[in-house]
Structure formats: C-alpha cells, structure tokens
Design goal:
2 copies of one chain form a homodimer. Chain A has about 250 residues and is mainly α. The longest helix of chain A is centred in the middle third of the chain and has 21 residues. In chain A, α1 crosses α2, α5 runs antiparallel to α6 and α5 packs across α8. Chain A has 13 helices and no strands. The interface between A and B is large, with 76 and 76 residues.
Chain lengths: ~250, ~250
C-alpha cells in the first residue's frame, strides 16, 4: 500500500506493544491516566489502529492485568515442583509476591477478580503451577480451586490494606469511650508493631518485585487506593502474615 | 432569615438525609449514577446546599459506607456477648453477613478498605462488638486488630468473587493441554459443586440481609464488579466457607 510505505516499522501494532505502552503509562502517570488515546499516542499510531487488537478499555485492562500477573514471582513454585522446596514454603512465597505486585496495581484488583482467564496466558501459567504444587501437597482435586480462590480473595483484600492510611483505626476522643475494647486492642496492636522491628517493612514489600521492574511502577496506583508513592501502610504486614498462615496452616 | 421563610421543612439538609438519598440512588440506579448533583436533586435542594455537610464525592462515599456497614448483621455478636452463642459461631455469622452486604455494594470495598473510621459511627460500633467477642474468645490484645484486618481482607476479596462470572476459570482447548493440572482441578470443582445441592446458594447469600433492606439494594453494584442483578457467581460459596473456616479455625 502506497500510503503506509513511509511509515516506520515501530508503528506496527501488536498486543505486546499495547501492553508495554499501557504499563509504561500506568507506571509513570497512574491508572486514572490510562486511556486508549494515550496508548495509541505512546505507540505512535492513531486510536483506530488499536481497535483491531483491543476492543476497548475493559479489554485493555485485561491485557494489562495479564502482563502484571506475569510479574508475580513463581520461582518458588517451580522450586517446589523440582523438589527443592516444600509446597507450603513455595505457596507462602508466591502469595506474598502476588500481594506485593497487586498492592502496586490495586486498581486492577477488581479486573483480575472478575475477568475470565481464557485470554490471559500468563495468568493461566501461574494457576497451572499453583495447581501442581497443591497436587504435590496432597490437596484433593475438588479442593484445589476453592483453595486458590480463598487465597486470592485474601490477597486482593490485603492489596487494598497495603494502602490503608496508618490512622485508619484512630478514634476520636468520644469514641474511645464508647468503643473502649476496640480502642484498647488498637493501642496494643500499635505498641506491638512498634517493637516488632524485625518484621519485614511494608516499604520492602512494596518495592518493585524484580530487578527488571522499573522503580516507577511504585506509582502505579490511583484513586482512593493509592497515592503516587504506591501506598505504604506500616500496619499491613502483621495481618497479612496472620491470615496467610491460617489459610495455609494445613500445608507444610 | 426572610429568604428561607417559605421553604418546606423537608428541604433542610442533614447528613442522615444525604445518606438516605444516596442509598436510594445507589439502590435504584447503581454506584455509577451517584453524584452530588443527583443527591441534591433527590433531597430537593441545590448542590451547594450539600457542601455544608459533605465535602465532595469521597466524603459522600464515606457517608454511604457507614450506612451500608450498619446493614451488617451484628445480632450474633450481641448474642455471644450475652452468653447465648459461642464466639466462633458469632464471628462466622457476622463475617458471612459482612460479605453478603458488601457483595451488594462492591464499589464500596475500596472505600471501606482505605477510609479512616473516625467519622463512621456505625463502623466503630461494629468493630467494638467484634473486639469484645474476640476478647471473650481469649484472643490476645495485640492480635485483635490483625485478626479483624485479616478477616476483612478476605471478606473484601470474597465480595468481588461473588461477582466473578461462572466461566472465569474456563480454558480454551489449547490451554487445557498446557494447563492440564489446573483444568483437571477445575473440572473436579465444577462436578463437586454440582452435587453439593445442600450448600447455601449464592442467590440466597445475595438477598437483602434484613427485612428492612429494600429489595432494590440488589441492584446496588456497578462497573466490572456487578451487574444490575447484584452478581451471583454460583461457585463463590465453597471458597468462602473454606477460607472463613481456616481464618477462624482456632476460635470455637
């Protein structure tokens, strides 16, 4: 075609390019700035060129979701399948990485929780690894999916909690009287957290999950869930460990 | 004041009126239609009249959140404190109600997970009851808040899962080969769910939680999380029960 002759090769649109461009926008500007038009501009094509590959904003988010899921660290799962790590240790490491990645991409939680995985190859690959580790751990076939869903539900909620403000449970004076048991529990928790200096800090948890991940991913949040610093609730770690241990208590 | 002399009493704005009007809009039209302008119109005042009571959309959502939290059934918690029910049974009943209520109000999950409770009296009251039940169960002071956060994180993620499409884990033919362990687990789960006709249905779980709640609340969802029917993932119940039992395994 005459018209396309002079176009640079980089203007060719692929789903991979769309995904990379979208992740770049999200990393630098946040999810609220992710639009089809901005992605097209980033790639250097007109918006209409995207629609052969992505059907709209929801499809774009599903594409980004699978790319983000690919950032979850599955090395521990592979180590367990190779016999180098216990299934329980592998699942704990995987779950923590899963939480850390989605804490950086909290606006995707709704998307991942409700989007069919049929078009998400990285997500499928991760689930396959988790399923195989659960089989190795002796989990009955029919309980594997419920176990994964229960873990994920906890991980998704915990991804939000990683962005809760440190003062979320602070009470006004009057409520410290009416809600005295809760206020006492809160004071005990805050005191306990202050002395637990050996616990992994939320800042470490929210650092980019691999050397390949650009530091700017830390600004990938949006809306009430995260500020440009990617969150950082200093009280999120203890509840996450407590819940994860309970959910995996029967798997060594 | 001369100017206000002829105004009808109903035009007086209170936070309670704003909350009721917002819940009505959400129940009939969904969260995507909730705006300050619509709330003002529902009350019969100009938008500027709202701003003496609510600072904007975020504050409006926080107000709605507390009103929705008041719908969570705390009767079992009160029964436990009166000695009529075990703490464990009370917490299970409360957690299920909490999940059911927020499954109907999934767009509020982000709000509740990240909004300080200082201005939310119904939420404070609920937390006080939960804290007192946990004290009665022998939970150490410093573990009460982490326990509540872990439970809530699970409940929030489960509120999303209640809206997952039934086909969320269906795989295309090719992936059924590459992800064969996951596919086998999925088939076993689906088969098992089909025979578990005695499990509480998600439709029952998503019904309004009390006789006072209008049926139209079932349409309170929005966006990818819920359709106008309030969701209804037929596979959500088993994972919820599995996770809840694990998180409360040590409390009778």
């Amino acid at each position: 075609m005459e018209r396309s002759k002079g176009r640079p090769t980089k203007a060719l649109v692929t789903r991979e390019k769309i995904s990379s461009a979208a992740l770049k926008i999200v990393g630098v500007q946040g999810y609220e700035k992710l639009t089809m038009a901005r992605v097209a501009r980033e790639i250097g094509v007109g918006p209409s060129a995207l629609y052969n590959h992505v059907h709209g904003k929801d499809d774009l988010l599903a594409l980004v979701q699978d790319a983000v899921m690919a950032q979850v660290d599955t090395a521990a799962l592979r180590a367990a399948l190779a016999g180098d790590l216990s299934p329980g240790a592998a699942l704990r490491t995987w779950a923590r990485s899963y939480r850390d990645v989605f804490a950086l991409h909290a606006p995707l939680v709704e998307v991942i929780a409700t989007t069919p995985i049929s078009g998400a190859p990285a997500t499928q690959e991760m689930y396959e690894l988790v399923a195989r580790v659960l089989v190795a751990a002796g989990e009955p076939q029919a309980r594997i999916i419920p176990r994964i869903i229960a873990l994920e539900s906890f991980i998704y909620g915990s991804s939000y909690d990683a962005h809760a403000p440190a003062n979320i449970f602070d009470l006004p004076d009057i409520a410290r009287v009416t809600a005295h048991s809760f206020a006492a529990a809160h004071a005990a928790f805050v005191a306990d957290s202050a002395v637990s200096a050996d616990a992994p800090s939320i800042d470490a948890a929210l650092a980019p999950v691999s050397a390949d991940a650009p530091a700017s991913l830390a600004s990938a949040g949006s809306g009430p869930v995260s500020g440009p610093d990617g969150g950082g609730n200093p009280f999120a770690d203890t509840p996450f460990r407590l819940g994860l241990e309970a959910l995996l208590a029967d798997i060594d």
